[in-house]
Amino acid sequence: MSETVAFHKEMAITHHDFVRLLARALGHKDFQLVDGKISIAEGERKMEVSLSMESERRIALVALPVTFVRFVLTGYDDARAEMDRIDLHFQRGGG
């Protein structure tokens, strides 16, 4: 089994949107957010996600949601590549 790797992120997202986008990234909704934590096991691979309480950052009249997120991946051959793949689903474009 591969080592455990942790990733820490500050994300401009609400808990509701995080769960919605994580389901899209994983391709399933077989998980629940309970007390700010999500645990997902797929065979030898395990992902644990911890979400901080939602807060907001104000810039002039703009209020952005802020959530600190900790991903812990265990059993992934390339945890960094998996995190990069998940990150793609959380990216937002503008224009």
Structure description:
The chain starts with a strand and ends in a 5-residue tail after the last helix. Helix content is 25%, strand content 41%. The chain contains two helices and five strands. 13% of the residues are buried. The protein is of the alpha+beta class. The longest helix has 12 residues, at 15-26. The mean pLDDT is 93. The chain has one domain (4-90): 2-Layer Sandwich (Ribosomal Protein S8, Chain: A, domain 1), CATH 3.30.1370.
Q: Briefly, what is this?
A:
The chain has two helices and five strands, in the order E-H-E-E-E-E-H. It has 95 residues and is of the alpha+beta class.
Task: Please outline the helices and strands.
Layout (H helix, E strand, L loop, with lengths): L3 E8 L3 H12 L10 E6 L2 E7 L3 E5 L2 E13 L4 H12 L5
Antiparallel strand pairs: 1-5, 2-3, 3-5, 4-5
Helix pairs in contact: 1-2
